[in-house]
Amino acid sequence: MNHLRLAFRLLAKSPGFTATALGTLALCLGANIVIYSIVSAILLRPLPFPEPGRLVAVKNSYPKAGADDSSASVPNYFDRRHAIAAFASVSCYSEGTITVGGEGSPDRVPLMRVTPEFFDTLGVKLAHGKMFTDENLGYGPDEVAVLTDGYWRTRFDADPGIIGKTFLNDGLAITIIGVLPPGFRFLSSEARFYRPLSHDPKLREPNARHGNNWNMIARLAPGSGLAEAQAQMDAFNAAQLKDDPLAQLVRDAGYHTRVLSLHAEQVRAVKPVLLLLQAGSLLLLAIGLVNLGNLFLIRTSGRAKEFAVRQALGASSWQLAREIIAETFLLACAGAGLGLLLGAFGNGLLLQLGANRLPLGADIALDERVYAAVALTVPIVALLLALPVIWFNRQRNLVGGLQLESRGGTASRSAQRVRQVFIVTQVAFAFVLLSGAALLGLSLKKAMDQRTGFSGESVLTGGISLPWKGYKDDNARADMLARLLPAIRALPGVTHAGITTGLPFTGFVGNNVIAVEGQVVPAGQSLQTHYTSSVSPDYWPALGIPLLRGRLFTDADIESKQGVCVVDQAFADHYWPGQDPLGRRLAADVKVNDENASIVIGVVAEIKQGSLTEANGHGAVYFPYGRSRFVPVVFALAVRASLPPATLAESVRKAVLSIDPGLPVEDMRPMMTRVSDSLVARKSPALLALVFAVSALLLASLGLYGVMAYAVAQRTREFGIRLALGAASRDVLRQVLGEGSRLAVIGLAAGIASSLALTRYMAAVLYQVQASDPLIYLGVGAILAAVALTACFLPARRATRVDPMVALRAE
Question: Cβ distance 418 to 707 under 8 Å?
Fold first, then answer.
């Protein structure tokens, strides 16, 4: 405690040094706290279920057909749930939304449909009531629900007699049979309640095995591992293919099933970015510690006589070391406290920027894991700051320390070398951070420069889901749409209004196998998947997608029994390069026949469907909705108007309610907002990397300036004598600049070598940018060189202005 009190008094006597040290630590630790809170929540924290390591995701894959990552089917569930010995339990789920409430006050609420053993698979017991059974998987018996604890409390006021009561879902009375325990949340789902995953019994037939519409999870049996489960799944699939009606087709598509860790699969897409950001924040901390190490060494040199006198009076090296450690520990604790405040602010800022939309991102917070990491970091930081000072004091002899200030000598060569090594390290680390930030920034710019292929400005979008009650058949749905679209088009300022089942940048664009008449699939290859959607005739004008050839749909096409379709240019180029695609026949099936054929009547421009960074050439096919073909139950509106989209939203809602008072419009957003939001996973890392890089550049420049300024101050006598003997000011300037430049050049060389070795790990998160882009390296090197020269020039200019008489008199 005495050491801490002494350390506090010493730090209070040096307010400038203390403020600099605390600011540096707060910045560096705060950056690490922000990133670690995200890494901890998403990558490190186990899933909040019993024995989470036994939970796996089961995914089908058809790589040769362009569908690497597909969900499971209804037959998959019924076939596998008792056939794989390595699985203790198998279940499926499907996410969606549903209308809750009656006419005049409808609300669109997220829900999840699940199979009966879903919560058993997760290891979760209901707090009240009971779970579904297999009988609830049919239409009619599926009109039951299990509520989350939060929804039970907010909507039903935690009614203790809730079991057996009903509430409206899509106009149907749904009976509540259970309530989940507090805090339950499945992955990133926002579901308020759960209902059975009901389906048509015909979907259980073998010819529907590759329908790909359910997400499958499983719990490994005790003693079983991923490898064993994968081997059993492979053997099971091989046996099933013997009687699969589509055996040859799926073999050609490379069909197989992957058994993956549920947690690892959830975070797979964001893991490289998060690890990259964590590495960047640790680099920033390293630069800050190096900078502080230099400051401590300089400060220690100023206290050399004090330490020498105390040693002469009997103070041991260990006693001095404890005092130094107490001082650095006190600084580290205070810096960590400020860092936590800065981290809390940064955490909130990142959540506003969309970090909570990352997989498992809803649980990002400064929790006990973050506090434990900070508590572990504080003594490590204290020791790292103290050790160079302790080593420096042990290297210096007592007599030299007593003579140092009185003789005005320079610091020891060992101390100078340590400080120079620190500067080289700072410049190298700063180069790595700057080059990484520049690569991410350039990658983001490349992504933002990509053209969507459509004109999304002045376009408002939103989703509608027609409830089963009142819209049980295609005719009822077609009548509703026939009234809805004219009502929206009649709104002031609206020029076009269309619908689609696959609105771009929503993640719900269909991806299905397309068979083309006359196209023979070579042996060993497979039919390809393409984007598919059903649209109204006004969809393309509403989104501003150009017509390149032929014509678009008309109302006659909707009513006609003859199938027609429109394809994009990428699809036409793939199947009919240099030929006229109009009049060709295709089908969303494995073969084309007179029953399923659609004739190509038009070609439109290719657009980005999933993201700005998706590869071109995937191909898209658009089918019309209609009484005789297909009328969507779930679809999106695209409304183009001369008014700002945000001001149009309320008018569109009222127009929909005028057609059906119980029908809400969900997720109303301008189209360009969806495009912008698709880049959140790139914008946030680029922004954070830029903050880290600028901070590193500032710390490196301050470190170089501090070392050079101290070196000039230590050599005041030398410079005074040289100038008195006739040396020109420019010679002194050249010497000081040369010494500083030499350190900067060595640091740049080390930084380039480090970047070449490390940036290849960034390749997975870069878009159209080479990890070793020479222009990036040249630009970053030029910036660092300019900053380094500026940092060296100020002390060098001070050296040229030394008055020889004043310098000699001071000695």
Answer: no
Question: What tens digit of pLDDT does each residue of 369-389 get?
Answer: 899 999 999 999 999 988 877
Residue 163 burial (C-beta neighbours within 10 Å; 0-12, 13-18, 19+): middle
Q: Is the pLDDT of residue 368 over 80?
A: yes
Please tell me the chain's helix, strand, coil percentages from 3-state DSSP, rounded to the nearest 5.
55, 15, 30
Angle between helices 474-489 and 645-659 (to 10 degrees): 140
Is residue 578 left, alpha or beta, with left meaning phi > 0 and alpha meaning psi from -120 to 50? Answer: left
Q: Which residues contact 173 (CB under 8 A, 6 or more apart)?
A: 143, 166, 167
Beta carbons within 8 Å of 461's beta carbon, 6+ residues apart: 503, 636, 637, 638, 639, 667, 668, 669, 670, 671, 674
Q: How far is CA 365 from the centre of its chain?
A: 16
Residue with tokens 């070793």: 772
Map residue 77 onto helix, strand or coil.
Answer: helix
Which strand (E) or helix (H) includes residue 137?
none
Q: Tokens 């970015």 — which residue?
A: 273
* Mean pLDDT along residues 256-262: 94
| pLDDT over 60 (residue 450) | yes
Residue with tokens 């630009």: 779
504 CB-near residues (< 8 Å, 6+ apart)? 452, 454, 543, 607, 608, 609, 610, 674
Q: Which two tokens stand for residue 574?
A: 């793939």
Strand 55-62 with 172-179, pairing: unpaired
Q: How far apart are CA 811 and CA 802, in angstroms?
A: 13
Taking CA atoms, 774 is separated from 752, 755, 756, 771, 777, in Å, by 10, 11, 10, 9, 5
DSSP summary character for residue 303: T
239 burial via Cβ count (<10 Å: 0-12, 13-18, 19+) = exposed
Could you tell me the pTM of the whole model? Answer: 0.81
Structure tokens at 180: 């989940």
* More confident of the two residues 687 and 583: 583
Q: How many CA atoms lie within 13 A of 700 on its CB side?
A: 37
> What amino acid occupies position 56?
V
739: left (phi over 0), alpha (psi -120 to 50) or beta: alpha
The encoded tokens of residue 401 equal 């320390």
Residue the block writes with tokens 């120079």: 420
For residues 461 and 637, give the distance between their C-alpha atoms in angstroms, rounded to a whole number: 5
Which residues are 256's β-sheet partners? 61
Handedness of CA 342, 345, 349, 350 (dihedral sign): positive
User: Which pLDDT score is estimated for 260?
Assistant: 95
Q: Which backbone phi and psi does 255 adopt, to 5 degrees?
A: -60, 130
| pLDDT tens per residue across span 387-438 | 877 777 665 554 454 454 444 444 456 666 777 787 888 888 889 888 888 8
310 vs 133, which has greater pLDDT? Answer: 133
**DSSP conformation letters of 96-149:** EEEEES-TTS-EEEEEEEE-TTHHHHHT---SEE----GGGGSTTTT-EEEE-H
At residue 359, φ and ψ (nearest 5 deg) are -55, 130
Q: What integer is the mean pLDDT of 780-799?
A: 81
Element spanning 604, H or E: strand 598-604
Q: Which residues pair with 128 in a beta bridge?
A: 179
Question: For 594-653, what is each residue's pLDDT tens digit?
Answer: 888 999 999 999 999 988 888 888 899 999 986 455 677 889 999 999 988 888 999 999
User: Helix or strand or coil: residue 73?
Assistant: coil
Helix axes 729-758, 716-724, angle to 10 degrees: 140
Percent of the chain with pLDDT over 90: 36
Average pLDDT over residues 251-279: 89
Confidence band for 718, pLDDT divided at 50, 70 and 90: low
14: its two tokens = 């040096």
Tell me how far apart the alpha carbons of residues 666 and 736 are, in angstroms, rounded to a whole number: 67
The DSSP H or E segment spanning 109 is: strand 107-114
Is 736 in contact with 794 (CB distance < 8 Å)? no
Nearest alpha carbon to residue 456 among 678, 767, 665, 685: 678
